[in-house]
Amino acid sequence: MLAYEENPDKVERADLVVGIPSHNEAKNIGHSTAQAAKGLLDHFGGRNSVIINCDNHSEDGTKEVFLQTTSEVPKVYLSTPPGIVGRGYNLKNLIAKAVELQAQAVIVVSGDLNGITPLWIKNLGEPIFAGFGFVAPLYLQHKYEGAVGNSIVYPLTRALYGRRVRQPIGGDCAFAANLAETYLTHPTWNDTVAQCGVDIWMTTLAIYQGIPICQSFVGRPKNHQNDGPFVPPEPAFTHTVGTLLDLMMLFQDFWGRVKWSKPTAIYGFGVGEVETPAPIEVSEDELHQGFVQCFDRYQQLWETVLENNIYNKLGEIRELPMAHFSFPSELWARILFTYSVAYKKEVADRQELLKSLLPLFLGKTLSFVKKTERMSIQQAEEYIENECMIFEETKPYLLGKWGNLS
Predict the structure, then answer these.
(1) Are 57 and 26 a contacting pair, CB within 8 Å?
(2) Is the pTM of this model over 0.85?
């Protein structure tokens, strides 16, 4: 959905594209652009490169800052029409332009990062030229960062598709030309993907297509200039989880045959600066209230979707005092698997289903915060890995409820 393009250097071909999606990032995009340009010159100086800002018709001067940022690397600005906002729309425009330029590789980095260095460009781009088709990021991050990824997307994707991709919705990534063409034409694209579902869509398609995948340490914590709330807004949550469940229905022939997961190659281990991630403030009271206050609103729906023993267990958790609050991991796996089946069978309106999952996610997140509050980052990672194993062990429960997998 391209409405506007500005190509002052008249770029017609490029071996390597760095794309920077944005929406009102005038204060920040100059830094990401400068670091990307330096990374391209330092590590890919022999290749024909271009930096593309794929924008959502920002009205704060994002385009002007991007085009005026000093760079020896040529730049192209793309924009959606006014009023069309969504990261997926930005990336679709980027991919279409990369295919037009006959690029061999595309690197995507966010426009609001203050942790980005030229090393990010190297570590995301080099694996593509070494034969990988998709590169997912690995960040040193706070144990409470990426809650949706930690509790839903990573364990569910891993159990379904059998690949351990730790940051399947990391946002920063790289992919080869053949995958770019797949993204451009694949029939699973829809409005939900075009909003906040695009990252899990890209990762899942790469796995499903059998593309060689690796993960790459980018070198520094992923610190955003504009950090959002710890708990994602409802639209971001429903778009991400909805896309995951939509693909789950379409690719059931694939994941129905998968039994256990295998590691994914890691590139650049130990490379880069060692820093402490920025602290994240978490309100346990807000998480708790978000969980318990939705029982009246969603009681009837939960009774319809969930088995009696699961629903009764939720009632027991609701009555726990804060000091002893706990949401068992196996229960959480069964809830997500049950919701997946309910979503497939449309036992209720799908958007309402997704909205009703959010307060349960808040309860699970509170439990994670309390269980890991005295843990180091590494210990919390081990806890998440153990939860993923519980999902894999519980997968037969999903298979038994799902129905026809042929």
Answers:
(1) no
(2) yes
Q: Closest by alpha carbon to 345, among 208, 252, 235?
A: 252
330 CB contacts (<8 Å, ≥6 apart)? 390, 394
The two three-digit tokens of residue 370, written as one number: 């309390």
Cα radius of gyration (the chain)? 21
In the chain, which residues fall in CATH 3.90.550.10?
4-267
User: ∠ CA 401-352-400 to the nearest 5 degrees?
Assistant: 5
DSSP class of residue 327 equals -
Give which of 41, 79, 45, 40 is closest to 62, Cα–Cα: 79
**For residue 5, what is the DSSP state?**
E
Q: What is the C-alpha to C-alpha distance for residues 242 and 169, in angstroms, rounded to an integer?
A: 13
Place of tokens 């009703």: 356
Percent of the chain with pLDDT over 90: 85
Contacts of 376 (CB under 8 A, 6+ apart): none
Please report the sign of the dihedral spanned by the C-alpha atoms of residue 159, residue 163, residue 167, residue 173: negative
> Which candidate, 319, 342, 317, 343, places its Cα nearest to that of 331?
317
Helices then strands, each counted (H, E), the chain = 17, 11
Beta-strand runs (E) in 264-309: 265-267
Query: CB atoms < 10 A from the CB of 57, how many?
Result: 17
Q: What is the 3-state secondary structure (H, E, C) of 165-232?
A: CCCCCCCCEEEEHHHHHHHHHCCCCCHHHHHHHHHHHHHHHHHHCCCCEEEEECCCCCCECCCCCCCC
pLDDT in tens, 107-131: 999 888 778 899 999 999 999 999 9
pLDDT digits (tens, 9 = 90+) for 380-393: 999 999 999 999 99
Give the burial class of 54: count Cβ atoms within 10 A of its Cβ; 0-12 exposed, 13-18 middle, 19 or more buried: buried
CATH fourth-level superfamily of 4-267: Spore Coat Polysaccharide Biosynthesis Protein SpsA; Chain A (3.90.550.10)
Which among 200, 189, 198 is positioned nearest to 156, based on CA atoms? Answer: 200
